[in-house]
Amino acid sequence: MQSIIRMMIIEDETEVLEGIKASLSLMLPAFCQVYTVGNAEDAMEMIRVLHPHIIITDIVLPRMSGLELLEEVKQIPEYDPKVMVISSFNEFAYAQRSLRLGAMDYVLKPFEKTEFVQKIASIVKLIGDEDHQKFENQHRAEHARMGTKVLMDQYMLSFCTKKTHLQEHIYHRLQLWQMIWLTTSPYRVAAFGLHDESTLSDKDVELQLFSIGNVAGETLQHFQPSYLLKNVYNRWIVISAYPDMDELIDAIRDNVSLYQKLQLICGVSGVMSAFQSLSDGYEQAIQALRWASADRRPALHYGDIADLRSDGEKYDSNSSCLEALINGDKDGIIHAVNDKVDDMVRNTNMLHRKQLAQSSLDWIMEIQSALKGKTRVGMEQIPLAIWENLEKDLTTSSIKRELVDYFILLSGQISLQLSINNNAVIEQAKTIIATERESDLSLQFVAEKLRIHPVWLSHIFKKVTGQAFSDHIIEIKMNKAKSLLRESSLKIYEIAEEISYQDLQHFGKVFKKRTGMSPKEFRYGK
């Protein structure tokens, strides 16, 4: 679209002035606006306000001359209009001075109107060509700038996601990008996300991210040195050596809220003191953002959650939760739930809190499946109320409470069912033990017959009978040995082999420990 070209004519002869204006109005394009003034003083006031693209002035005017007017125009900063001087004086000195003051042409009165308008039209065309060239140059420069920014973002994101040592070629890049402050000043990393993206379409999220980036970029102009980029998870990342990071964060959040009506959350790293620590700062900011998102906090510093990191031996929350559910251990359930939810928040790339709720539902199904496999207790479907409660806009604390309440209820149901099932299982196990050969009486063998896990069989056997499975097997074997010693003529080593003891000495020790007598003493009643 063609921009408006403003033109000012300064002429004290009313007839000449009106004639020029009429001719220009008829012959020039509609996008030219023509202003007429009869003296230099009024013209100067209008020029300061309008900054016309073209000035046409007579030399001889009341009080201030046209050339004196041009002298003042030259003093206006960043203003360079196209000038044409009209005059009745055919003197070289006037023309020379006019050209020195920036005039493109010096026209003598009287002049032929058509030729005069053509001169003006050529100036209008020149302005259009210059504007077009300026636009093209700006366009190319913007493309070049954007290309450079994209390249910088790619490098900076790689520095953020992978620990990088400060090598010579990287140092030169930082110099080129005017980011050498990353090697000389302490800095922090901040990660920004939307307060809630769960109800937005991908297109809406993209538009909002674009607007947030614009506002944040403009805001950061006042908080230098700083750098802004977007990561692959659509989080805006700010790296800044500005001394007051909280002030910077508040400014970005306030401006985005003011201009875009969007609420941002933010995670902030600790202070980094070396370039190669950039990846550490980035990871800290992302983790702090995850915690802030899950717990509905506007901003959270990494130092506030660092003590919750699991740096020692990893706690197996799944196994602990299973054990606590089976044993009815309320404290164990609470511990397992707290650890699991904290772990989900710390170690997953949550884009919004509802992903935490979905992960919690997935975990319930995982635990119930494992319980069914371990105990053979039938699991009911997860109640609809649990789905609804977890899918609400909950905090991590609320999600933990919801999970604990559900698991405690589930534990009670399991305990009741197990008390019924376990007795039947143990009776089946005793039947297998009584009917199988002694050589086959292992925990693994009996568990396979029952199609349950050996550990689970051992657990419920002790719980129901008060006796360990291995002790029960030894008791069965020793009872049979006592019967054979008293009622058969088998030699002692044959009796040991009959009950699957290949080592006669070991059999003797076990028998004496159980009966207080050696096999020989028992046989002969000593």
Q: Topology, please?
A:
Blueprint: E1 5-10, H1 14-27, E2 32-37, H2 40-50, E3 54-58, H3 66-73, E4 82-87, H4 92-100, E5 103-108, H5 113-161, H6 168-176, H7 181-184, E6 188-194, H8 202-220, E7 226-230, E8 236-240, H9 245-260, E9 264-268, H10 278-294, E10 299-301, H11 317-327, H12 330-347, H13 353-375, H14 384-390, H15 396-435, H16 443-450, H17 454-465, H18 469-487, H19 492-498, H20 504-515, H21 519-523
Parallel strand pairs: 1-2, 1-3, 3-4, 4-5, 9-10
Antiparallel strand pairs: 6-8, 6-9, 7-8
What is this structure, in a nutshell?
The chain has 526 residues and is an alpha/beta fold. It has 21 helices and ten strands. The N and C termini lie far apart (121 Å).
Multimeric status of the protein: single chain
Radius of gyration: 45 Å
How would you classify the helix and strand content by structural class? alpha/beta
How much helix, percentage-wise, in residues? 55-70%
Question: What summary fits the major beta sheet?
Answer: 5 strands, parallel
Question: Helix segment count?
Answer: 21
Estimate the global geometry from the Cα principal axes.
rod-shaped
User: What is the total tally of β strands?
Assistant: 10
Question: Which spans of ≥5 residues are poorly predicted at pLDDT below 50?
Answer: 308-313
Strand content: 5-15%
Mean pLDDT: 83
Ends distance: 121 Å
Strand order of the largest sheet: 2-1-3-4-5
Subcellular location: Cytoplasm
InterPro entries: CheY-like_superfamily, Homeodomain-like_sf, HptR, HTH_AraC, Sig_transdc_resp-reg_receiver, Tscrpt_reg_AraC-type_HTH
Organism: Paenibacillus baimaensis
Protein name: Response regulator
